[in-house]
């Protein structure tokens, strides 16, 4: 039996739930080499999934992940689909391609992992602050567009909107998600805002699924403090600044984790049948939690979740209603 804590490794969770992997289809955004998304995909390969759909911007960064999967099990269908999360046009094109692909009849688990962290201020091609669109808004759009194939899954699909302990530094700044055109920009706050939105997305999805009598579940796992390419913009000075903000909020310095420990929380949220019958959406160190020391109240507030959904619909220019 797996013990769920900070030391749990992804491969142990896959080994504990092989029937939840075998023959199923998983979609992962941002599975670049050396990242938690890639480690998740590679761990899943141990239990023979039918299909792994890998979405990313640069094949050269994802090819090593594909090679590692094929080295474990060459029979797995691995589909790489290029996407630019900084472009809603690109996201819509990817959704159409997946919906039209007869080799993808359903999606069992969707892991919205692709992200940037503490990057310099910039706007996307759609005119939105980059963290907010890449980490959250494009995933909001993609998930809603792919619901027809998520609803085909049996047992019911799961949607993971990856968050971070960093959500605690900022709620969604509804008056100006772009920090007043960058004039009041703080990289850590931009990252935190986007990760709060990811949790709110899971909260509102679950409310809508429940009201519709649908068994699909959404979760927001945090991988914890794992050293990956996500930190490529983080200088020594920025790391020290971020740590000061973190400590000032009353939190202890985070414990560094391995890739295997980081992906374990994703994998439990994706696979463990026991999670379906509980209401918590946020997972940290492999455990669902509403501990206020780890989860800010604004990130799971139902009215805030509705407000974030409405803003997101306005930003993508499309309304979404769950139709079963």
Automatic annotation (TrEMBL):
<protein>
    <submittedName>
        <fullName>NAD(P)-binding protein</fullName>
    </submittedName>
</protein>
<dbReference type="GO" id="GO:0016491">
    <property type="term" value="F:oxidoreductase activity"/>
</dbReference>
<comment type="similarity">
    <text>Belongs to the short-chain dehydrogenases/reductases (SDR) family.</text>
</comment>
<dbReference type="InterPro" id="IPR002347">
    <property type="entry name" value="SDR_fam"/>
</dbReference>
<dbReference type="Pfam" id="PF00106">
    <property type="entry name" value="adh_short"/>
</dbReference>
<keyword id="KW-0560">Oxidoreductase</keyword>
<dbReference type="InterPro" id="IPR036291">
    <property type="entry name" value="NAD(P)-bd_dom_sf"/>
</dbReference>
């Amino acid at each position: 039996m797996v013990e769920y804590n900070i030391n749990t490794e992804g491969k142990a969770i896959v080994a504990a739930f092989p029937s939840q992997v075998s023959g199923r289809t998983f979609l992962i955004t941002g599975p670049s080499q050396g990242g938690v998304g890639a480690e998740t995909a590679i761990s899943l390969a141990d239990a023979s999934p039918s299909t792994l759909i890998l979405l990313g911007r640069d094949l050269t960064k994802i090819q090593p992940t594909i090679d590692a999967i094929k080295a474990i099990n060459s029979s797995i269908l691995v589909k790489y689909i290029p996407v630019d999360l900084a472009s809603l046009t690109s996201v819509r094109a990817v959704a159409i391609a997946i919906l039209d692909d007869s080799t993808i009849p359903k999606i069992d688990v969707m892991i919205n992992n692709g992200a940037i962290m503490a990057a310099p201020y910039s706007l996307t091609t759609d005119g939105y602050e980059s963290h907010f669109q890449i980490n959250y808004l494009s995933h909001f759009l993609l998930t809603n567009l792919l619901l027809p194939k998520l609803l085909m899954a049996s047992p019911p699909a799961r949607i993971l909107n990856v968050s971070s302990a960093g959500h605690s530094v900022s709620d969604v700044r509804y008056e100006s998600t772009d920090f007043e055109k960058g004039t009041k920009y703080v990289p850590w706050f931009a990252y935190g805002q986007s990760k709060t939105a990811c949790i709110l997305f899971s909260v509102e999805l679950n409310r809508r699924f429940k009201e519709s009598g649908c068994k699909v579940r959404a979760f927001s796992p945090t991988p914890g403090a794992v050293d990956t390419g996500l930190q490529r913009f983080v200088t020594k000075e920025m790391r020290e600044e971020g740590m000061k903000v973190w400590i000032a909020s009353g939190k202890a310095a985070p414990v560094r984790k391995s890739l295997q420990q980081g992906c374990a929380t994703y994998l439990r949220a994706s696979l463990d049948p026991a999670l379906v019958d509980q209401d918590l959406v946020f997972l940290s160190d492999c455990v669902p939690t509403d501990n206020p020391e780890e989860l800010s109240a604004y990130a799971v507030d139902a009215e805030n979740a509705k407000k974030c959904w409405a803003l997101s619909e306005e930003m993508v220019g499309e309304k979404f209603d769950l139709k079963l």
